[in-house]
Amino acid sequence: MSLTSKLQHLKQILKRFDRVAVAFSGGVDSTLLLKIAVDTLGSQKVLALTATSPLYPVYEEEESSKLSEIIGVRQMLIANNELELPEFVENNPRRCYHCKLKLFSNFLQIANQNGFSTLIEGSNQDDLGDYRPGRDALQELQVSSPLLEAGLYKAEIRQLSQELKLPTWNKQAFACLASRFPYGTSITRERLEQIERCENWLRKQNFTNFRVRYHHELARIEVPADELSRFLDDNLRQQLVIEFKSAGFQYITLDLQGYRTGSMNETL
Q: Which stretches of the chain score pLDDT less than 50?
């Protein structure tokens, strides 16, 4: 199916709904979904729901608000604290299920209170290729995934976003900060802040994609393979060591496999 056909299919899927609330993170996928929903149904029939949480950096929340203004849709910020869930904090392989169940249950409640009976989110075809227990929660709560249903892949979503002049078309993929921890390692606010601080530093150095994986006293850095050579710069490397040690890590390593999504699932 051509990309044009997939876009038309997406619009037909959205036309099945009268009023929709969109789980909106400000990432590539949910931004395109929100834009197409507004273009298809009109801004008065769409509501953007964005979680504020220890799992998301502050800049992500700020960017989502700017995007909501650009698209011209009402946004509601919903406070969510996953650290209140013992099943989440203990970080077993079903962590994402417990997280999504709590978050999307909250979203559904807020959506219904505001007259939106349908909740949609931005999963796509690429998400089927990794271990995603959170999808079980979405199916359990009957949350729709129009991009997935339309057969859209990440690269196609970026292409459509670029054609629509959305500033997120080349934004790096982002997963919540909990994905930086090996299963079985407890997730705490202090550890989340460690990761956020170190990743913010890498972002300011203009790395295109990056992750800082937490291994207690050791930080494992993932960047794209073609950016590994940047760490040969003595000044960059010395500044990184100072920053990461100030954040609480004793050892800093560079993953020679480079950046990849879901690397913590490789042990499953």
A: none
| 16 plus 144 within the same structural domain | yes
Instruction: Report how far residue 208's alpha carbon sits from residue 158's, in angstroms, rounded to the nearest whole number.
Output: 15
β-bridge partners, 241:
none
* Torsion from C-alpha of 191, 192, 194, 198, nearest 10 degrees: 150
Q: Residue 211 forms beta bridges with which residues?
A: 222
User: Which residue carries 């969510």 as its tokens?
Assistant: 80
Domain end, chosen from 103, 136, 163, is at 163
State the Cα–Cα distance between residues 111 and 141, nearest whole angstrom: 13
22 neighbors 48 (Cβ within 8 angstroms): yes
pLDDT at 268: 56
Domain identity same for 143 and 239: no
- Which tokens go with 211? 């992750």
Rounded distance between C-alpha atoms, residue 240 and residue 116, angstroms: 46
The answer to whether residues 221 and 195 touch, using CB atoms and an 8 Å cutoff, is no
pLDDT reported for residue 248: 97
Nearest in space to 87 (alpha carbons), one of 77, 76, 75, 100: 100
